[in-house]
Design goal:
The structure holds 2 protein chains of 2 kinds.
Chain A: E1 3-8, H1 16-22, H2 29-33, H3 58-70, E2 75-82, E3 87-88, E4 103-108, H4 122-135, E5 143-144, E6 147-152, H5 161-174, E7 180-185, H6 193-196, E8 200-202, H7 220-227, H8 234-237, E9 239-242, H9 243-251, E10 260-261, E11 263-264, E12 280-283, H10 292-309, E13 316-319, H11 340-358, H12 369-385
Parallel strand pairs in A: 1-2, 1-13, 2-4, 4-6, 6-7, 7-8, 8-10, 9-12, 11-13
Antiparallel strand pairs in A: 2-3, 5-6
Helix pairs in contact in A: 4-5, 9-10, 10-11
Chain B: E1 2-7, E2 15-21, E3 30-31, H1 39-53, E4 59-63, H2 71-78, E5 86-89, E6 95-101, H3 102-106, H4 120-131, E7 136-139, H5 164-179, E8 188-191, H6 196-208, E9 216-220, H7 225-229, E10 235-239, H8 252-263, H9 265-269, E11 272-275, H10 289-297, H11 308-311, E12 327-331, H12 343-355, E13 359-363, E14 374-376, H13 381-389, E15 393-397, H14 400-408, E16 413-416, H15 422-425, E17 433-436, H16 465-480
Parallel strand pairs in B: 2-3, 5-7, 8-9, 8-11, 9-10, 12-13, 12-15, 13-14, 15-16, 16-17
Antiparallel strand pairs in B: 1-2, 1-4, 4-6, 5-6
Helix pairs in contact in B: 4-5, 6-10, 6-14, 12-16
The chains are: A alpha/beta, B alpha/beta.
Chain lengths: 386, 484
Amino acid sequence: MVRVLAFFDTRYQSSADMLSLTGTADPWARLREARPASRQHFALNQPSTLGMYDLADPQAAARVVAMARGAGIDGFVVDCRWAGGTYVTGAQVLAPATGESFGLAFQWRNGDENFWREPADRETRAGRAAALMAALKAGQPTAVAGRTLLIVDRPKELAEPAETLALLRSAAAGAGLPGLYLVANRAEDKGRFLSAGFDALIDPGPAEWHSCGPSNRPTGLDFLEVMAGLKDSVEYLDKFFPYLLFAVSRMINREQRGKVLPRVFPAFHDWAFHPEGGATHLVAPGNKAVDTYWYGLFVENAMLHTHEHFTAGEQIVFLDSWNGWLEGSQVEPSLLDGDLVYNATRDAIDRGRYVIRTREGLPEGGLAAEMRERIRLLCDAARSIS
Amino acid sequence: MLAGLAYSSRSAFPRHYDFRFSQGAFREDEIFDSALSVPGRYIAEVARRMLKAAPDADRLAIGNPLLPLRAGQLATWLEGTAPGPLIATDQSGFPIVYVLPRRAFDEFERFLLLLSVQDAKADCRLFGSILGTDIAQQVLDLPALGGLPPQGSNGWLNGDGRLRALGLQCANAAGIIKMNRDWQRVPFAVYYPMHAGDVLFMAVASRLAQRSFFSKQVVCSSYMDIPEACGSRLEPMRLRLPWISRDGSVSEFTYFGRALERLGDEAVTSNFFVFSRILRLYYRTPFHLVDHARFALGDPLESYEGTIHAIGAEPEHRCRQPVKPLRVLFHLNGGWALKTYPLPYIRTIIGALRHARVDVTVIDRPDLEEAGARSVVSEDSATLRRLVEDHHLFVGVDSFPHHFARLVMGWPTIGLFGNTKPCNSDARYGDTYRTSDLNLSCNRCGAYDVCPSLGRRDCVNYGPAETVVADIFEMAGRLYGYSA
């Protein structure tokens, strides 16, 4: 079965450990106060049905999980960050609402720490790894191949990737976890991530991987006009991408990129994180922030691809995101879109699961590798002749 | 969104029922989403569901399926109204809620299909004569809806004003009931006359349907051989008109009007015609077009197990020719540029298969003879049947020959899908059926001539040559013991 896991921001809570990480008692303030700096910036949306919840309230957390389950989502991926003494996930508040059909996975924000970039003695590193593993013990884990799923956000920033991964696995065993299913946040396996010990890769987010060329290609004249105050500076500083081409590009030739799990998203515009420019904007047809038809196709086709190319138990599609309000990628019902995106998500997951079910009768196995090679040669020969 | 209220003399308050159009999960509150069903079909289905849940109901109020309505809204509007049959409308007479006695659903269910759902006066007249009682019209405190958009929020299409066809079918029906005392015995004819694949889907649906309101199907002259060739249970009614152009130059409503004229007075006064052309976007669902047609005919389709994807369409058959040389029949023209399998791919496939001493036949593609294929002509279903039977495997794009080979003949088939969605017209997957496509996130784009994302004139979602050749060898090996 293909599972859909949604990235989830746990910072919307008033618990003490989250306060130590964010330093703010009002986690929604940034969203409320964010103002577009350009007419080309899509306005940020705000929650409707679930409100500006405090996840520290068990009922609020339960409502969030119930709503996600209702959309067919199988679990959340929550960030794990170093808070200067311990790792914090904020996942404890969700734990009571998790269970067999809804689990938690984790994304380690290792890029926030210098520690793993620099050399250190093995004992110190093992201690840090143990701290990381302790933070992952919250709620029902999303088991992938029987192990806890952990995405490494910046795999290239690990000084000794293979050794670090071995250390993490050892620490996981020590912490009583059933093992780790380690996923590198990379678009393709050029850096030999799989051979370093990762179990799979995941497509990076829209800001980290521009899967097609931008629709705006500023020239020197644009620069001069911006400097003269004659043109909106975002046209020079930000990048705008057509959503459809951006999504399609991520699915073309996937098989050749290695074992990469897809990441799907309804929308994306991260200008709130780039006040000085440099934001990424996905623009749906009709100059809209989101087009539920194309988004739905992205989801259902990613599910089908995953079903056809990954082994059972490792079939996961990552949905970015459940509540990424500051990047406009949220699925949660909102003031501007109502439950349009939420319903589109549920519908797409329903369709994906239906179509996958239709393919269950396909025979296992297939041609032997030698025969596939022979077919490749036959096709090459035919191409050269024609 | 679909909504209804069930009233019972045992209770002072109606029970509320809200449903949504299913996208494949078949939850309890979901109803199959059929693009070929008239809104009245949904009134019938909502009633079935409510009566199953509330068997003691003696009166049902059902929201107009064209509109996004909730049961709570209906209850508010209808609070304190008379129990008699009525149609509640907006201020312009557009029907919002139908309140009908139980026997309208028990005894006259199929007549619900004839409702105009846009003209309360016409619908009052129709159901008044069916029930033999006056049906009141009650104006709600709701401003005039002001016409239906090209694509409504509840998923209905009206881009070319096609929903007006429902008014026409309603008027015809009222005329029959007025003139013919034996109107309850007048047969129902489904109007779904073109194109070839559609006629085939309806024919297959008629075979599979467990419940059907219909006994006849209107078919364009060019396709008259298809229903019989497909074992249809519907009697074909010949429509002497060329099939409707795909360029939109003639609207579905205009064509429907011409069709009724061409069918003639006798046919029009002795059959209830139900307009079953595309009224919703079928490709926004994962359901097979045969199932869309089955629901339109009357099947409830309440679970995956009932769909054609689960039950299949036809017993499987195999080729009786010796296994060598392997013989493969291709159909590659989909009717428009992006639905046609890309030329470089097929040249490569033909070349590779010829190197492996496989005989390749293509339908209506003399240009591929140079590449090593034999081109043949197939102008009717009998010829096509012979051609298919003469080959071990059929490989084809999303078009009539593909559906005929698989859904009617049960032949080993590989489907080639590019810019159309396989699940809407594939078959039950297994040893003898599979599709070759890449699941790109643009599928289904619905474009005709130019790819909307890459600007090309061919579709990159088609499975490449290597995949198709591998699928051919794999299926031939599994079914016939063939080894290249």
